[in-house]
Design goal:
The complex is a heterodimer of chains A (229) and B (335). Chain A is of the alpha/beta class. Chain A contains seven helices and ten strands. Helices cover 34% and strands 28% of the residues of chain A. With 335 residues, chain B is α/β, with parallel strands linked by helices. Chain B has two domains: 132 residues, ATPase, nucleotide binding domain (Nucleotidyltransferase, domain 5), CATH 3.30.420; 167 residues, ATPase, nucleotide binding domain (Nucleotidyltransferase, domain 5). In chain B, strands 3-2-1-4-5 form a five-stranded mixed sheet, sandwiched between helices. In chain B, strands 8-7-6-9-10 form a five-stranded mixed sheet, sandwiched between helices. In chain B, α5 crosses α6 and α6 crosses α8. The chains are: A alpha/beta (229), B alpha/beta (335). At the A-B interface, α1, α2 and α7 of A face α2, α3 and α5 of B. The structure holds zinc ion.
Amino acid sequence: MIVLGIDTSGYVNAVGVSDGRQVLVDQSFPARTDSLEQIVDNINTTLKKAKLKLKDVEGIGVGLGPGSWTGIKVGVTVGKMLAFSAEKPVCGITTLEALAYTAHSRTKLVCPVISAGVGDAVYAAFYRAGVQKGDFFTGDVNDLAALVKEPVILIGSNIKSYRDILVKQKPTLKNKITIKEALPSGAAVACLAATRLKQGKTEDPLSLTPLYLKESTAKVFVNKYKVKK
Amino acid sequence: MLILGIETSCDETSAALVEDGNNILSSTIATQLDLLKKYGGVVPEVAARRHAELIGYVIKEALNTGKKTLDDVDAVAVTSRQGLIGCLMVGVAAAKSISYARQIPLIGLHHIEGHIFANILSNPDLPIPHIALTVSGGHNMLVHVKRNCRYEVLGATLDDAAGEAFDKIAKFLGLDFPGGPVIDRLSKQGNRKAFAFPRPMIRSKELDFSFSGLKTSVINMFKEKIANGESLPLSDIAASFQEAVVDTLVAKTIRAVEEKNAKVVSVTGGVSANTRLREVFTETCKKKGIQVFFPKLSLCTDNAAMIAAAGYARMKMGERSDLRLNVFPNAPLGG
Ligand SMILES: [Zn+2]
């Protein structure tokens, strides 16, 4: 099953293709501010690299975030409208799960960490053998230390600095944390989506929504933007 | 030629099917009125999130209502210029995905050009050239429509748009949101001459608008009374305030008409639904031998049908956007 995966939650357009067994192509395009401008071109380029056309694609995986609010709005909208317009089954995958997947650990606890944009705020979660353990974490990375109680693979972008913070908070973690530097991967999203789609776990494309984790509460936004009008 | 229009520049998620630029098969608008009421106005990130939730459903509904499928759609037109950046992005992301998946042409449009076409769509006999006044909560502009899709911007608001002033005064008076329709209704029972509010810049030769001073003057006039717990003659205030806004809009538009030696006025945008504005424009233009046109009420506020109509006109001129189409929140009205 040929599955296209996209994830624009980070400062890259991550686009990849999996045939359901292995990765055919995994591309990462720089896109700090121009996610929207480049995304469709990047999808087209990636498919071409795999010598495929959109009509050859049998399913679409969409990275839901968390990450850049603008990035995930663009990526999820593109993913769902491609699936709707090209009539492909679709599956939403959280970016944290996709990152955990790229750690390739069947046994160890994996903790993907994504910057929440301001200061030391992060999104994180714990996975074992691909299964999420506990809730999503949203908050100061210093507070994440308390949740780490056993050896863990920390994965994400700029991950060394997060390890340093955790070890500083809780020195006993010194030998318990291994790190893996990784960006969101379109292929990881595609692989996870392929597994789910093969099991018949498709979603209504129109229902896909970004995973912000940080709620758009009135307070947050009213303070940030000072309501216009 | 069947065009799917998409409009998400502010707080309405909208999709429409328009055939040959003049026949509306469907026009679906999901308003965010609940959010507007909750926050007292448009909060950009909140509005953009709602667009991302609704966009697919709105497009599907437009197709269903028009009894068409994407197979029947020949092109996609979308608002890509002027508006809230995060909101515009959702519409453009959707439009380019459809264009790519269906291999159909794409065109990005300026929001104000859409409003100009809302009136052309409503009145197929609306002559060009004409002077267009677009007036809503988010924008306030005087445009010389010189030829088909060729514009000269004559003036714009320097601060608040007229619709914005309506909202702020309504809020100050403790009235419902959005303020335009409420003040319009209330004014019908009020005395338009009860209070002499300033007509901002009405004597200036410039064709720009400024409503922030009027707003402040209304608020200052009554602050003391409110502080003393006096009851305010709401309908008189509403009617007098509305009259000041209407007088200003009409005077500036007529000045533009005279300056450009035009014979026709097109009033468009959300505030063009205001009954008193329509009344005064109709009277004044009749006296001066000028023709005046207003859009259908359903096409006054933001909608995708007007975007599809503008897209059709531009496509007939051979224009297309490529899949790198981006958004420009502050782009001037070009072309
Ligand atoms: Zn508008």
